[in-house]
């Protein structure tokens, strides 16, 4: 028994902010941002709710299911529109749902934590779950702080997951959290995101590699068997360092951070959508989904696509 991915959808704001535009108000340059991060432009605007609604509706359309057919909404966000209520309840209302709805906050690992939560809910009696990662990070960026302003952006991605008594797309998971690292990447109430970028970088590579290796072992495959890696989109150099340590060539990694920046819990579904749009995902392929974020948290999963 297990879980099948049935549909996917994404939403990004229309407004494109290029590195060039940022360098008009910050002491930075397109060259520095591109070299150190791989980011060329990002999308800014909307809210966790409005982006989440759009991505959620598109995922339901893609799966050809209606709002009444969804049993549970799990919405991952680090940047809820309000402290209360949960953004999920407002998104569910907009989508015409009356099912249970809740937020999950595991920062940039949020989408993976939400998938893991949905798996448990599906294996204990629910038929179909909408999982959304939706972020309005730009609201919590000090736009005069070049450390964060060049990295963070807005967006949403969603997937419909369905119970299947006969098989599963989700072969394994490896999740973790280390709250002793809480101050490395933080945003206080009423404040802005702050980060020790170097230390986050160092730990991110270690956590991604460790959790990916555990997920591969538990799925019973090796990194050679992977057709694709769909990583959290924080920094191209983190993706390069982690894939190199895992023995995976970069042409098997999906990269969209050049266009979208770091959209936290939206970044893995944004990357998945891009891979699908470019015909990079085929039925029977193994893929590694892997992320890390504030907390610090981390999460890897091995998936075998059945569609
Ligand atoms: N533009 C131009 N120069 C800059 C900028 C900038 N935006 N930021 C820093 N610099 C300067 C520094 O002042 C420093 O100058 P100096 O050599 O004269 O002292 C130089 O560039 C190098 O700075 P470093 O901080 O050493 O740069 P580094 O190579 O470490 O790159 C970065 C910084 C991109 C932040 C990197 O550390 C990183 O990506 N870390 C991980 C970030 C991340 O993944 N965060 C994840 C999650 S976000 C979330 O969860 C919401």
Overall average residue pLDDT = 97
Number of strands: 13
CATH topology of the largest domain: Peroxisomal Thiolase, Chain A, domain 1
**Gap from first CA to last CA:** 17 Å
The molecules bound to the chains, other than polymers, are: acetyl coenzyme *A
What portion of the residues fall into strands of 2 or more residues?
A: 25-35%
- Domains, number: 2
Q: What is the CATH superfamily classification of the largest domain?
A: Thiolase/Chalcone synthase
Helix content: 25-40%
Give the structural class: alpha/beta
Radius of gyration: 18 Å
Spatially, the strands of the biggest sheet line up as 1-7-6-4-5
Number of helices: 10
CATH architecture title of the largest domain: 3-Layer(aba) Sandwich
Low-confidence stretches: none
Shape: globular
General description of the model:
The chain is 33% helix and 26% strand. The mean pLDDT is 97. It folds into two domains: 2-164, Peroxisomal Thiolase, Chain A, domain 1, CATH 3.40.47; 170-304, Peroxisomal Thiolase, Chain A, domain 1, CATH 3.40.47. The relative contact order is 0.20. By secondary structure, the protein is of the alpha/beta class. It has helices at 19-22, 30-37, 48-63, 87-94, 110-122, 146-149, 197-219, 236-246, 257-260, 267-277, and strands at residues 2-11, 16-18, 41-43, 72-76, 101-104, 128-136, 154-164, 170-177, 185-187, 193-195, 226-231, 286-293, 297-304. The strands form four sheets. A five-stranded mixed β-sheet has the order 1-7-6-4-5, with helices on both faces. It has a four-stranded mixed β-sheet with strand order 8-13-12-11. Strands 2-3 form a two-stranded antiparallel ribbon. The structure holds acetyl coenzyme *A (ACO). Acetyl coenzyme *A (ACO) binds at residues 28, 32, 36-37, 107-108, 146-147, 150, 152, 185, 193, 195, 197-198, 200-201, 204, 234-235, 238, 262, 264, 293-294.
